[in-house]
Structures are given as C-alpha cells and as structure tokens.
Amino acid sequence: AQLFKESISMGFEEFNLLIKAAGEHNACMKMRGRFSSYIRGFDGAKELRQKLVQACTKADFERILFTEAGL
C-alpha cells in the first residue's frame, strides 16, 4: 500500500507541473496514460485504468485515485 501511495504521489507532482505548463484540460489528457503507467502492477489496476481514461478534471483523478482506490 505504501508503494502505491508513493507512486500516486509522484503522479500528482507531475500532474500539477503539467497543469501549470499546459492547463488543466491538456494535463488531464496526458495524465490519463501516465497514471495508467503509475498504477501498473498494483491490485485493481485494470478497473482503475478503465476509470482514469474517462477522467476530465483534476477532481476526477483525485476522486478515482484517492476515494475509489481507498487512499
């Protein structure tokens, strides 16, 4: 669980930088694939990926990765 949290934390660091550089919409499009890589190999990754590829806002990513993933 700790490794998963660290992976997601790194993903959000990248996400926040992308938001500053390219705006939220562009960052979200990019992070759909990037977060899929960050969660690869963890339990429940397939189900989370299916939700992540539909995320359109930072709030969507937070809901999926913190609330639904149980972080």
Description:
The protein has 4 helices and no strands. The chain has helices at residues 2-22, 24-39, 45-52, 58-68. Helix 2 (24-39) packs antiparallel against helix 3 (45-52). With 71 residues, the protein is mainly alpha-helical.
Mean pLDDT: 93
Q: Helix/strand-derived class?
A: mainly alpha
The helix content is over 70%
Question: Strand count, sense and closure of the main sheet?
Answer: none
Count of strand segments: 0
Please, how many helices? 4
Strand content: under 5%
Q: Which geometry do the CA atoms define?
A: globular
Report the order of strands and helices: HHHH
End-to-end Cα distance: 9 Å
The low-pLDDT segments are none
What would you report as the Rg, rounded to the nearest angstrom?
11 Å
Brief rundown of the structure:
This protein is an all-alpha fold. The protein has 4 helices and no strands.
Task: List key phrases describing it.
71 residues; mainly alpha; 4 helices
Helices and strands, with pairings:
Layout: H1 2-22, H2 24-39, H3 45-52, H4 58-68
Helix pairs in contact: 1-2, 2-3
